[in-house]
Amino acid sequence: MKTDATPEQEKAVIKRIEEMGFKSHVIHGQDRDVIGAIGHEKKKLDLMALQTHAGVEAVIPISKPYKLAGRELHPKPTAVKVGSLKIGPGTFAVMAGPCSVESEAQIVKTAQSVKAAGAQILRGGAYKPRTSPYDFQGLAEEGLRLLEIAKAETGLPLVTEVMSQRDVERVERSADILQVGARNVQNFALLKELGQAKKPVLLKRGMSTTIKEWLMSAEYILSEGNRDVILCERGIRTFETATRNTLDLSAVPVLREQTHLPVIIDPSHGTGVRDYVPPMAMAAAAVGADGLMVEVHPTPETALSDGAQSLTLEMFSAMMAKLKPLIELVGRSL
Question: What value does the CA radius of gyration of the chain take, rounded to a whole number of Å?
Answer without folding.
Answer: 21
